[in-house]
Amino acid sequence: MSIVTDASSPAAPEIADATPGDGLREGAFGNATGLACRECGHQVALGPHYACPECFGPLEVAYAFPAVTREQIEAGPRNIWRYKALLPVPDDIEQSRNMEPGFTRLLKADNLGRELGIDHLWVKDDSTNPTNSFKDRVVACALSAAVEFHSKVFACPSTGNLANAVAAAGARAGIRTVVFIPSNLEKPKQVNSAVYTDSLVAVNGNYDDVNRLASEIAGEEEGWAFVNVNVRPFYAEGSKTLGYEIAEQLGWRLPDQIVIPVASGSQLTKVHKAFQELISLGLVEDKPYRVFGAQATGCSPVSVAYKAGTDAIRPVKPDTIAKSLAIGNPADGIYVLDICRETGGAVEDITDDEVRAGILLLARHEGIFTETAGGTTIGVLKKLVDTGQLDPTLDTVVINTGMGLKTLDAISDQVGPAATIEPSYAAFTGSGVL
Ligand SMILES: *Cc1c(COP(=O)(O)O)cnc(C)c1O
Ligand SMILES: [Zn+2]
């Protein structure tokens, strides 16, 4: 089993019942009732815990949802807090110094659909979040938890976008931030963190090394909230809002197929969880849908396991331009396999050249400049159609999780001026551009 910790990190302290832990204010986590182990079901109280004290399985937020109506949600703000009843956040979340990510556009992508041969295609465009990636959603939920835990430091190990989101949200909340990245990260992603924090730490190693270091620091230091380590259960819930929004923006119905990029696998897992919650709350009609995962071949441990028909995910050393997806040992990879297999989807991977082509496909057909992660997702969408794994007659949503200005290097030698000319009409007509 793949879990979120390793043998050297501390287990969550054992707590017998599932009432809110000491020192937490009433209603601090909304309708959440506790943390439940995804593997054995053991429950612990709400707190900065992430690993099951019984079996080391990952902990997940459990809820007792009240009746929630479409009208209540629609009356909410045009950001993720419209779904606050379904998140582990307090009812007064909108009064806090948090970010307001989400409710990003769902674009009908007819040009790209025509190009790929898909009848009904939508792009969920998360590049317009406050720091230009889907990570603002998860960080907003993690920040709420960190504040309720009276954390002194808001921190993360990151493949880039997470560091941007943590640094910005911490600045707005007035909490000290420390963000850790692999030292070979793209320069724009480094700058996009360093503008918000004076504590960007570049680590000589890959993401999995950075993650191990973060677990060690989380075990040694008091009062640190590592968004994707010790407050990971709260962080992960933020990805559900992508699923809620897609369903609401489709007119309160689920798509038939959805293609989602996979790094740790958290996002894919939580979009599925969101769809299941909407069904069980009666907010959408129950119907089958297929979930597809997208990876770059240079870091494709989940796709490799999917194709081999096994549950055993073998960790890899990443080597791809899709750095925001470069997690060689994905914590939720096993659950991605389960979901993609159970729903009749698949996990697929593409080469770096196909990633670059994916970036151009989306830019030239829909006017959306995505980063390498989005290039991966679009490229995989194309491959799924070309190989007959995705049904082009069904309603299909693809998620664009990031912004192309952060990974300019990936594409900058493939595009540029069609001609460089003197400022005269004759020079223009002679340039061959027309
Ligand atoms: C982090 C990230 C992902 C994937 O996130 P996981 O939940 O770890 O699978 C996808 N796209 C972008 C741009 C990201 O930054
Ligand atoms: Zn357990």
Automatic annotation (TrEMBL):
<dbReference type="InterPro" id="IPR004450">
    <property type="entry name" value="Thr_synthase-like"/>
</dbReference>
<dbReference type="InterPro" id="IPR001926">
    <property type="entry name" value="TrpB-like_PALP"/>
</dbReference>
<dbReference type="GO" id="GO:0009097">
    <property type="term" value="P:isoleucine biosynthetic process"/>
</dbReference>
<dbReference type="GO" id="GO:0004794">
    <property type="term" value="F:threonine deaminase activity"/>
</dbReference>
<dbReference type="Pfam" id="PF00291">
    <property type="entry name" value="PALP"/>
</dbReference>
<keyword id="KW-0456">Lyase</keyword>
<keyword id="KW-0663">Pyridoxal phosphate</keyword>
<dbReference type="InterPro" id="IPR050147">
    <property type="entry name" value="Ser/Thr_Dehydratase"/>
</dbReference>
<dbReference type="InterPro" id="IPR036052">
    <property type="entry name" value="TrpB-like_PALP_sf"/>
</dbReference>
<comment type="similarity">
    <text>Belongs to the threonine synthase family.</text>
</comment>
<dbReference type="GO" id="GO:0004795">
    <property type="term" value="F:threonine synthase activity"/>
</dbReference>
<feature type="region of interest" description="Disordered">
    <location>
        <begin position="1"/>
        <end position="23"/>
    </location>
</feature>
<dbReference type="GO" id="GO:0006565">
    <property type="term" value="P:L-serine catabolic process"/>
</dbReference>
<protein>
    <recommendedName>
        <fullName>Threonine synthase</fullName>
        <ecNumber>4.2.3.1</ecNumber>
    </recommendedName>
</protein>
<feature type="modified residue" description="N6-(pyridoxal phosphate)lysine">
    <location>
        <position position="135"/>
    </location>
</feature>
<dbReference type="GO" id="GO:0006567">
    <property type="term" value="P:L-threonine catabolic process"/>
</dbReference>
<dbReference type="GO" id="GO:0009088">
    <property type="term" value="P:threonine biosynthetic process"/>
</dbReference>
<dbReference type="GO" id="GO:0003941">
    <property type="term" value="F:L-serine ammonia-lyase activity"/>
</dbReference>
<feature type="domain" description="Tryptophan synthase beta chain-like PALP">
    <location>
        <begin position="101"/>
        <end position="402"/>
    </location>
</feature>
